[in-house]
Write a structure and sequence with these properties.
The protein is of the alpha+beta class. The protein has a domain of 151 residues. Helix content is 38%, strand content 14%. The longest helix is centred in the C-terminal third of the chain and has 32 residues.
Amino acid sequence: MRIRTGVLAAVIMSIALTTSGCGSPESPDPAPNLVGDYARSTTVVNDRLAGTGGSSGDRMANIAAYYSPEQLQARLLSAFPCDTSAPDDSGHGGDFFDTHCDLTRTVLDGVRRVGGSDDKVAGRVVLVKHEDGSLELLTLFVAAGRLIDTNGKTYAGLDDFRENNDLLSSDDVMRAPRNLTAVPGEGEVVTVYGHTRSPWHLWALGGIVVVLLGAALLVVLRRAATRSRRAPAPTDQAAPGF
């Protein structure tokens, strides 16, 4: 029983195209302008920038008076020495950035586990857009070259955080330095999903792909067998003489 070369090529091409889409993308495409969204929003959770009251237009005008888009991103994403004194919101200008850190016992336990010192903890925020569209400045901490979150979990860097954190989902998007443990944080800034997708999603998708392609191949084989049975049998003919 034969299957036409064209049919086999189509099946192989289908497998290649389908499995090539099974990977987990690191970044949304196109990437949203999270810094622009931040400048327009008046409802940013845990916002640390002063002068952000009033309407969206008032907020944008206030921010533009002090920062270019590049300067705003640098101000938001740079690490800062943690201030553990009581927060004081009085008498500050519109460019004031709150560096207060809530160093709970849980956070300090994480700091000590990585060999850090209680009085040498840097704070850093990452700009997050959650699945529901809400914006947040999520506070993380850096000590002894490691990253610590508010639950006391520790990470080697951005990739480790995205794979193992319990704070963000794979549908959240974050804007952060690629080198998340750098202090103060120069270097590449990236927009990535807040969490890598769980491997079981990929296995489930792969299983569905295999079942669908197997069913399609079975249909092709049955049709080829049916055509073979219906074809007329060849007749014996004497070989032509010379």
